[in-house]
Design a protein that fits this description.
By secondary structure, the chain is mostly beta strands. Helices cover 14% and strands 38% of the residues. It has a domain of 89 residues: Lipocalin. The protein is built from two helices and eight strands; from the N terminus they run αβββββαβββ. The longest helix is centred in the first third of the chain and has 15 residues. It is globular and about 40 Å long. The protein starts with 7 loop residues before the first helix and ends with a strand.
């Protein structure tokens, strides 16, 4: 039989205290997302760049679109078109939302980047009702 040592309860308590101190702290408020999961602004969008657009209604050349860091410029192929001009856009991970400017005055509200049948990038511009322009990189 092993003799009882007076320090045994103290050592056991000390080991438990070290084990508790080494355990990870648990969050008390689980309603706040950790920084790695918090919403981050999009810094690079696939919509950035120069695009040549065609009208989906008749497949005619519609114009050129340039998107860069939250701004856009559109030059319509139709002389004097009210769609030509500049504005601001909110960049997204899958496209952009037009916030103001000439494209919004003609009803275009957002654009989504997808790929076509051959795997090339395609930026489709939409009104509230339907897609109106298909744009390819230039």
């Amino acid at each position: 039989m092993r003799p009882f040592h007076a320090a045994a309860p103290f050592l056991t308590a000390l080991m438990l205290a070290f084990a508790a101190a080494a355990a990870p702290a648990l969050a008390q408020d689980d309603t706040v997302a950790p920084p790695s999961q918090a919403a981050q602004p999009v810094t690079v969008s696939p919509a950035e760049g120069n695009w040549g657009c065609i009208a989906l209604v008749d497949n005619s050349k519609a114009g050129l679109l340039t998107v860069f860091q939250g701004s856009y410029g559109y030059a319509s192929a139709t002389f004097g078109s009210s769609a030509s001009g500049t504005g601001d856009a909110q960049m997204g991970s899958d496209g952009l939302k037009f916030l103001n400017g000439n494209l919004t005055t003609v009803g275009i509200t957002y654009g989504l980047v997808t790929t076509d049948q051959t795997g090339n990038d395609l930026l489709t511009l939409y009104t509230a009702d339907k897609p109106v322009l298909a744009c390819t990189p230039r």
